Fold this sequence. Notes:
Elements lengths: L7 E7 L2 E4 L2 E4 L3 H13 L1 E6 L16 E5 L3 H20 L10 H24 L5 E5 L6 H8 L5 E4 L7 H4 L5 H9 L3 E4 L2 H14 L4 E3 L2 E3 L5 E6 L6 H8 L2 H13 L4 E8 L6 H14 L7 E8 L6 H21 L8 E5 L4 H10 L2 E4 L8 H12 L5 E5 L4 H5 L4 E3 L4 H13 L2 H17 L2 H17 L2
Parallel strand pairs: 1-4, 1-6, 4-5, 6-7, 7-8, 8-11, 12-13, 12-15, 13-14, 15-16, 16-17
Antiparallel strand pairs: 2-3, 9-10, 10-11
Helix pairs in contact: 2-3, 3-4, 4-6, 8-13, 9-12, 10-11, 10-15, 13-16
Amino acid sequence: MQQLERPLVVIANRLPVSRGPEGWHASSGGLVTAMRPVIEQVGGAWVGWDDDPEGVPRRVDDFSCDLFPVSLSQAEVQGYYHGFANRTIWPLFHDLVVEPVIDRGWWRTYAEVNNRFADAAAQVIEELDTPPMLWIQDYHLMLLPELLRRRFPASPIGFFLHIPFPPPELVARLPWRDQLLHGLLAADSLGFHTPRYRDNFASSVQQLVSGVTVMGDTLVMADGHQIRTGAHPISIDADEFATLATSEATEHELDELKEQFSGRKVFLGVDRLDYTKGIRHRLQSIELLLERRPELRGEVAFVQIAVPSRDDVKEYRELRQQVEREVGRINGRFTEPGHDVPVHYFYRSVPREALAAYYRLADVMCVTPLKDGMNLVAKEFVTVQAAAGEAGVLMLSEFCGTAIEFGDDAVRCNPFDVEGQSYLMETALQIDDDDRRGRIARMADAVHERDVYRWVDDELADIRRGSEGP
Ligand code: ADQ
């Protein structure tokens, strides 16, 4: 683990806590788990939007990190979050899977809210005895490095982008590209999931900002300020998922699922309901498969677990309707009288044990996004399968960050090619047992080697080195 000399202040859109039936607790994602030992070592604080009507406490029992909420009005949430972040940046940075909306009002609110986050962070920083290391997360806060640099010129500042960084010709479409690029360039270190995203950023800066020199992984501004750029693939807590794979609760869930799907091969999809995840294309491939190979009807089942997401945004509400129409059409066409439906669709979040049981059950896991920064579902699947001695197949889109790490051990697909994807689904069923086991084992090893602790270490090391200069 990285030895830090300073406290750490994380600034992210969301606070890392959730409220359950038994009160507040730290959220279950890998980022929070990986941050825990670091924050316990050096102390720290987290600044984020408080979207709970009753407010977030300053501390929760199981996480020794001070929480500093930023309250936003409805109009601010609308312009900054639903608008600029999720309807302008998100589609633009995901290769225009849908058309980004350019709205000056949303941009102004985004800039104002970034200033609100800077004010909140400044208050936290000023309360600390030692100047902290600042670590800003994601596309909601791209102006923040510059806003904080002006107030704290000597603080080490890092930024990590959780989504892809697009090529310069897409960045160029943004009327506010200068402000966003300059916002980021004030950091000491900028982290991306893959070398491609990092290179896209460097090329965008070279083409769109004057006076910047690219020297390998370092960008040098006209005033001499240097920025380290790193490719650090985010990951999961692999040991935690490996343990979950064979827990009593998981085994219990799995027994029930095995009974339910007995005699059938199971294809699985687990995604946030987002148009980038390729859910509609996947369903269309399934429909083609069942159309082309009538003998598979009744022999295969498709389970799609879709976690509700951004349903305040028009495109997401429309996607839900489209997905539900497709599921209805496929089941209407291919359900035989007296038999189960071919597609099982769940629009909800499921508990981790149930998720692990589905990962174990799956003969073929379909992770087929049209574009995805990384994709943690693929990493969770191979880790759970290997730990439990299962031998499923991972079908993986070539357009997600994870594809770079798994190489040919996954069945790589182009999700835009609906017909091709349906042929690959058949191919996946034909891979022999030894081959499947070997592939799962190698992919799981890769996840263990580069888990989320390694990601935190690499990021923090780069921020430290970046702030120390050449
Ligand atoms: P996401 O787009 O949310 O993350 P992903 O990386 O797949 O995508 O993470 C989703 C998480 O949600 C996984 O941990 C998964 O287990 C969980 N999940 C999904 N469906 C669920 C369900 N129905 N019930 C319960 N849990 C569910 C963004 C980027 C990604 C990047 C991550 C991290 O879009 O590319 O990998 O951030 O940087």
